[in-house]
Amino acid sequence: MTNSLLEQLPEIVREGRKQAEKILESLEGRHRVSLQTREWVLPSKDTRDSDWITAANRQAHLGDEGSADWTNRLIYGDNLLAMAALLAGDEHTPSLRGKVDLIYIDPPFDSKADYRTKVSLPGVELEQKPTVIEQFAYSDTWSDGTASYLAMITPRLILMRELLSDSGSIFVHLDWHVGHYVKLVMDDVFGSRNFTNEIIWWYYNKMQGNVNCFPRNHDNLLYYRKGPEFTFNPQKEKRDNPVQQIKRIWSKEKGSIVNAKDESGKVIYQESTHRTIDDVWRLSMLQPADRTQNLRFDTQKPESILERVISAVSNEGGLVADFNGGSGTTAAVAERLGRRWVTTDLGKPACMIMRKRLIDQGAKPFLYQAIGDYQVEAAKSSLGRKFRVGDLSGIVLSLYGALPLQPEDNPLRNLGAVVYGGKKTLVLVDSPNKLTGDATLRKAIAQREHLLGGWDRVVVLGWNFEPSIGQSITALSDPRLEVLVIPPDLLDRLRKKGGIEKLRGQVRFSSLQYLTIKPVRRQRSGDEEQLQVTLDNYVLLSPEAINLDEDNRKKLLKVANAEPLALIEYWAVDPDYDGAVFRSVWQDYRGNTANDDDPLRVVTEARFSVPHKTGGRRVCVRVVDVFGFEAEVVQVVAESRP
């Protein structure tokens, strides 16, 4: 007979502590989790961007915590790995252990929720299921119901406590599904003495719901402090109708608050126009007609909640974190209230929405980062901490249908052969520790020509790619070279299916997406020069790799063939790309009407001014399509003649 949830809870918490302790022990190791900066976003949703170039020069490096050089960050990936990276720190960024003043999270709490993403394209609307990585993460969360949910959230809460400053606070936003169980876990992690409030958000829901019970019209926010030292700023709200109240003052003699009295001893009354906010928050839900705030994102919460939380328990300049970023409400409000922020999400659609929201708001420059070596971390989880990259390459070769070469010809264990119809194909599996780029392709071509007497073709299978990979493939123009994408969810699928044999024949290795632009124009005018960058074409990643049903796939192909640039969700330009960090000085995205009046298409041409530069200019253009796939192209533009 299965134990009840209360009987399982002590073991769930013990296992969660063990998982968190392993992560904390690994922070000092050589192979600790790191963050990769994908983009340094300098918001400029129209052509008024020259000030941001100066700002970019001022913020050449990330500085110590609390300095003027702090840069806010949006992180894509599993929040457990993101927190591990933030706790570890790196050579550019100090550890955030004990540095976060406020954590607010709004984790999923409805096991029957369907988080499909609707993608509106010109003339059609697609319905995309969550990516397989998101599906597995979510199914892991609920595989055994509430027990799995608690097993997921426990180690994360422990890492959050490590990130909190001594005077920090945490708010966990839940409802009736799991709130009472999570409180038990939080009592254990943070200490029941540090439980401060259970806040009721009453949201004026006019829907009557189930006629067999009282309508459910509230959520719960569990508020804990880390310790006896804390920040708290009492909040007040305006009364609809002012009232007469007794004036209350502090009495030093009695050491308490007492009624104020005049010289004759009469109690003093005063008009009260505001009330102190208590633990029942009467705040409206987001309204469908609210075009300024409502982003049509499932689970989005109104800014009024975060305004109250952030104002109450943090001060200007404090650091706020949200590890279930969603639509970006926490980051947006923290930015507006003068706080620093870090936010993460596992969903690419969520990260795209957050990036656009912050650009639209005119936020300070921020970093868009991803988990470094995600596949390596997933492999450790699936294959054990002692796994080797060669083990992973062998799995990929087997699933592709290639036989590994002999050890003497294959010291890295990443080469295989496919012989079919009298033709020999060499297969190279690149490492998950690196970005597959031009150097790897040239090495593969050389091995095709010389290894074991030569081969008819070579196929390169990669996990992560340099954004300019499409440009490299075009420049090589080699019909006997093929580059394919290893499914990013492969290790999760191996773990779920139970091994290679059950996956054989079911794994698709997809082609790459790529971008082309027209020749960049560069015209000098005094101390400045104007750049004109024009998109030419965008080829989508193989549609089979996108989680669509057959009907939606046909709709997508129709748009892709007729108007490929309509698939672009966001694009940005770095006028002086250094090959390391992409600094986006100019951006446009669907829904931005500052550059045009078409919410379903980006503009295809960028015109903006930059300070004059002598010699060639390395201009990089990066695009993100509506499914979150990225591509970039680089052009070196000669200096224009006066």
From TrEMBL:
Q: Which Gene3D superfamilies match?
A: Vaccinia Virus protein VP39
Supply the EC number(s). 2.1.1.72
A Pfam family matched in the record? N6_N4_Mtase
Q: Where does the DNA methylase N-4/N-6 domain lie? A: 100-353
Question: GO molecular function of the protein, one example?
Answer: methyltransferase activity
Its GO biological process terms?
methylation
Keyword Electron transport in record: no
Going by the UniProt record, its keywords in alphabetical order are:
Methyltransferase, S-adenosyl-L-methionine, Transferase
Report whether Iron-sulfur shows up as a keyword of the record.
no
Task: Show the SUPFAM superfamilies listed in the entry.
Answer: S-adenosyl-L-methionine-dependent methyltransferases
What chemistry does it catalyse, as a reaction equation? a 2'-deoxyadenosine in DNA + S-adenosyl-L-methionine = an N(6)-methyl-2'-deoxyadenosine in DNA + S-adenosyl-L-homocysteine + H(+)
Q: Which family does it belong to?
A: Belongs to the N(4)/N(6)-methyltransferase family.
| Protein name per UniProt | site-specific DNA-methyltransferase (adenine-specific)
User: What is the species of this protein?
Assistant: Rhodanobacter terrae
